[in-house]
């Protein structure tokens, strides 16, 4: 009787823990859905005023260019318009980044075994001639991973594009991609460059939305690419981390589920 009572009490406690776990999952799902809805709404609602800024800015430029050149204010006003146009274009890129992050968080995952070597080559092909002159060190044989092929391709394209951007102009630019199984069903993927690098103490800030480690004047971009990578990794149950030092390049590491 005592044993039965203990079993009953144990069963009740287990049921209660399961109910609490289910409720926590529902709350997390609701928060994720609200976050995605917010990103979609912000991205959509900002498009219309941004189009007005760019469209009317172009009209104002045309009017100013019709004025006599002897007015010194005309040249100054055209400079203001150029700054406004550059800022509007940057804002457009930020909206594009938000939309990409929101999309990555809601599209259905089509998980399959993905050939990592082939995926890296496809991502390199997307870079076109931009990757010419770089010393590529890509492991000849890498384990397959379990992933949504489209999202995983986007992630690799972002990582290789970033590595290329921060090694641009170097006499001996080098980008390496290696991967190995960890013996526990996961794959460690490393994308490393010998480019500009940054303060390693700020490495985890790199994956926040619109976080940048360099001035826009030095390197283009709005700081959304690695946030997108973090969102894609999270959906796959993977982790992404970074290590770097100023002038000594950057190393991005992924711990990804392997293909069973």
From TrEMBL:
GO molecular function: phosphorelay response regulator activity; phosphorelay sensor kinase activity; protein kinase activator activity
Protein name, entry field: histidine kinase
Signal peptide residue numbers: none
EC number of this enzyme: 2.7.13.3
InterPro entries reported for this sequence: BphY/WalK/GraS-like, HATPase_C_sf, HATPase_dom, His_kinase_dom, HisK_dim/P_dom, HisK_dim/P_sf, Sig_transdc_His_kin-like_C
Catalytic activity: ATP + protein L-histidine = ADP + protein N-phospho-L-histidine
Species of origin: Alicycliphilus denitrificans (strain DSM 14773 / CIP 107495 / K601)
Top-rank lineage group of the source organism: Bacteria
CDD domains attached to this UniProt entry: HisKA
Keywords for this protein: Kinase, Phosphoprotein, Transferase
Class in the EC hierarchy, top level: transferase
Any GO BP: osmosensory signaling via phosphorelay pathway
Annotated Histidine kinase domain residues: 41-260
């Amino acid at each position: 009787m005592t044993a039965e009572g203990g079993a009953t009490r144990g069963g009740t406690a287990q049921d209660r823990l399961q109910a609490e776990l289910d409720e926590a999952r529902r709350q997390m799902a609701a928060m994720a859905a609200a976050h995605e809805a917010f990103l979609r709404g912000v991205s959509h609602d900002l498009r219309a005023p941004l189009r007005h800024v760019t469209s009317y800015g172009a009209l104002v430029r045309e009017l100013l260019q019709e004025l006599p050149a002897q007015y010194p204010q005309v040249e100054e006003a055209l400079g203001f318009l150029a700054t406004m146009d550059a800022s509007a274009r940057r804002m457009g890129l930020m909206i594009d980044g938000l939309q990409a992050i929101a999309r990555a968080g809601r599209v259905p995952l089509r998980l399959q075994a993905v050939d990592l070597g082939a995926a890296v080559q496809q991502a390199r092909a997307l870079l076109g001639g931009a990757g010419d002159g770089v010393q590529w060190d890509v492991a000849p044989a890498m384990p397959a991973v379990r992933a949504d092929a489209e999202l995983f391709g986007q992630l690799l394209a972002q990582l290789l594009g970033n590595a290329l951007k921060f090694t641009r102009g170097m006499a001996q630019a080098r980008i390496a991609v290696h991967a190995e199984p960890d013996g526990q069903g996961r794959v460690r993927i490393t994308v490393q460059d010998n480019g500009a690098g940054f303060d390693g103490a700020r490495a985890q800030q790199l994956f926040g939305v619109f976080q940048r480690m360099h001035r826009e004047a030095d390197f283009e971009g709005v700081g959304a690419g690695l946030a997108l990578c973090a969102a894609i990794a999270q959906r796959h149950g993977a982790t992404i981390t970074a290590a770097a030092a100023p002038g000594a390049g950057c190393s991005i590491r992924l711990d990804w589920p392997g293909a069973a």
